Amino acid sequence: MTKDELQTKIDGFIEEETADEKSKNTIRKYKHVATLFVNSLPDGEIQKSDIVGVKDKLLHDYKISTVNNYIVIINKFIKYAEIIDSDDDFNFLKLKKYYSKNLLKNVRVQKDDSLDDILEPNEFQRLLKKAREINRMDLYEIMKVFGYTGIRLSELQFFTVEAVTDDNVYVMNKGKGRGIILRSDLRRELLKYCKDNKIEEGCIFTSSDKKSPVNARVLSRDLKMIAGKCRGIKLGKVHPHAFRHLFAIQYLMQNGENAIAELADILGHSSLETTRIYVRTTRKMKKQNLESLSYAKRK
Q1: Which of 121, 105, 136, 99 is nearest to 245 (CA)?
Q2: Sorted alphabetically, which keywords does the UniProt record give (predicted)?
Q3: Are 179 and 168 a contacting pair, CB within 8 Å?
C-alpha cells in the first residue's frame, strides 16, 4: 500500500469511528493521529521499516506515554486500511480479530507504582481559600465539585441548575452513563451560587459566552493562576484531572481498600485495574506511611 492510498482512507476510518459513537474529542484525536502518521511516511510503497520510522520520530517528539497512546490509534488505522483494501467489508468485530504484520509494538517502560506531584489535601484547602480571597467563586465551586465528586472535566457540563435542584446529576462519558451522588452541603452551596449569580437554568459553569461548557485550556490556566498565588504549590500539579486523583486517594484512605469496587462505580470505571491507577500514592506519602510503621507492642 502506498502513502497516497493510505491518505484516501483517513476519512473512511473517521466515519467508522464516528458511527461507533466515539466522543467528539476522541474523533478529533483519531483524525489528528491518523493524519500525523500518514504525513510522516515517505512517498511511494510503504514498508514495515517506514512505519517503524514513524514510531522513532514520535519518540523523538513526544513522551513515551503519548507515543503508546498514538500507537494504539495507528495500529487501529493500519488494520482498517488493510481490511478495506482487501475486501471493502469492514466491521469492528473483524477489526478486533484482524492481524497485521505491520502493527507497531508499544514502548515498554518499567512501571512505577508511585506518582509524583499530585495534589495533597492541605493544598486543596489552600486553593479553595485563595479562590475565595480573590472572589473567584466560579473556580471555588468548580474545585469543590471536582474534589467532592471525582468527576472528569468533560462531565462538568451535566451539572445544570435543573439536575442539582432535583438532586439528580446524570453524566455521560465514553458511551456510558452514571448518576453522581452529591453531598448535601455541596448541593446547597451550588444552589446558593446559582441564586447569587442569577443562573436560572442550564449549565452552572460555562465559558465566557455563558452558553458553551467550560473550556479545558482556559480552566487549566485559571487554576494555575490560583496556584501561583499560593506559595509552595507547584503549578504542574494543578489541573482539572488532579482533583480526580486526590478524590480517589482520599476516598480509599478514609474508607479502606475494601471500598475500591465502590470507588470504581463512583468514578465510572468498568475495570478495577483502571481505578488502581488513580490511587497510587506519591513517594512522599509512602515515606510518611513507612515512618509510622512500628513493631512495638500496642498497650
Answers
A1: 121
A2: DNA recombination, DNA-binding
A3: yes
DSSP three-state, residue 178: strand
Q: What is the average per-residue pLDDT within 239-252?
A: 91
Residue 299 predicted with pLDDT over 60: no
Q: Could you tell me if 121 and 245 are in contact, meaning their C-beta atoms sit under 8 angstroms apart?
A: no
Q: What is the spatial distance between Cα 131 and Cα 14, in angstroms, rounded to a whole number?
A: 41
176 has a pLDDT exceeding 90 = no
Task: Decide if 282 contacts 114 (C-beta within 8 A).
Answer: yes
Q: Terminal CA-to-CA distance of the chain, rounded, Å?
A: 75
Top-level CATH class of 121-291? mainly alpha
pLDDT band for position 199 (cuts 50, 70, 90):
very high
Specify burial of residue 83 (Cβ count, 10 A radius: 0-12, 13-18, 19+). middle
In this structure, are strands 169-173 and 176-180 parallel, antiparallel, or unpaired? antiparallel
Contacts 24+ apart (CB under 8 A), 62-67: 64/107, 64/109, 67/107
Segment of 22-31, 135-144, 249-258 carrying the highest mean pLDDT: 135-144
Taking a C-beta distance cutoff of 8 angstroms, is the pair 279, 248 a contact?
A: yes
* CB contact at 8 A, 226 and 136: yes
Distance (Å, rounded) from C-alpha 149 to C-alpha 247? 7
Check pLDDT > 60 for residue 113.
no
Is the pTM higher than 0.70? The answer reads no
**pLDDT exceeds cutoff 60 at 99:** yes
Quote the CA–CA distance of 33 and 73 in Å, as a whole number: 7
Domain residue extents for the chain: 3-97, 121-291
Query: Based on C-alpha coordinates, what's the Rg of the chain?
Result: 23
d(CA 279, CA 252): 8
